[in-house]
Amino acid sequence: MKKIFQRINNYKFTLITVGVILFLSLSSSEDINKPDFFDFKNSDKVIHFLMYAFLTLIYLMERTHFLKFRTQTKKTRWYFVLWIFLAGGIIEILQPILSDRNQDIWDFVANTSGIITAYLFFIILKTTTSIKFFRRDPSAQ
């Protein structure tokens, strides 16, 4: 049980982000107040992109920090990013069943674009930055 709570604590921001995405994705569209700057055609695609990019980036940062930069990070990182991709697809399929929203392939494309963009951004940031968080720890090998 202690291990489960430790894992939840290690991924707390990822889990909070997943909860927010689930809430927003399955809520009635009339219940959500859109800010004025998102009041344009297909603005929901931008929101989908940003939500899934943020989720992927937060997850990758927590995962890298949790594993203390071991080589295992590189091997398992893609598996969990794939789970984010699949979860986005499943949510998109369940939307008409669980809420008044419709399925939209372009929402799924926006989700996937956000995931890929965040993953590439993370890799570039990790390899080019001097921020200690992203540098490989030589003692962890």
UniProtKB/TrEMBL annotation:
Keyword tags: Membrane, Transmembrane, Transmembrane helix
Spans through the membrane: 45-66, 78-99, 105-125
Domain VanZ-like residues, every copy: 36-125
Domain of life: Bacteria
InterPro entries: VanZ-like
Designated name of the protein: VanZ like family protein
